Amino acid sequence: MQGGINRLKDKFTDVKFEITAIGERLRAEFGISVNEIINNDPDPKYNREASKLRSTTSNAASTTTARSTP
User: Fold this and answer.
1) How far apart (Å, rounded) are the C-alpha atoms in residues 10 and 16?
2) Which listed site, 6, 27, 53, 54, has its alpha carbon 20 to 30 Å from 44?
3) Which of 24, 45, 43 is nearest to 34 (CA)?
4) What is the pLDDT of residue 29?
5) CB count, 10 Å around CB of 26?
6) Helix/strand/coil for 59
């Protein structure tokens, strides 16, 4: 149990570090804060396009799996 907690703490620390690094790059290259992006509601336009991409890739994977199963 304690090992699982420690792994979660380590993962949390890693994610925080990654977000900080991304935030620094956003600020340096584009002059925006990572909080501006995190606090914005997702644009439905991009969610719809992502859903289309997901369904396309899952359909392709299903077709490939169906062909490869005897």
Assistant:
1) 10
2) 27
3) 24
4) 94
5) 16
6) helix
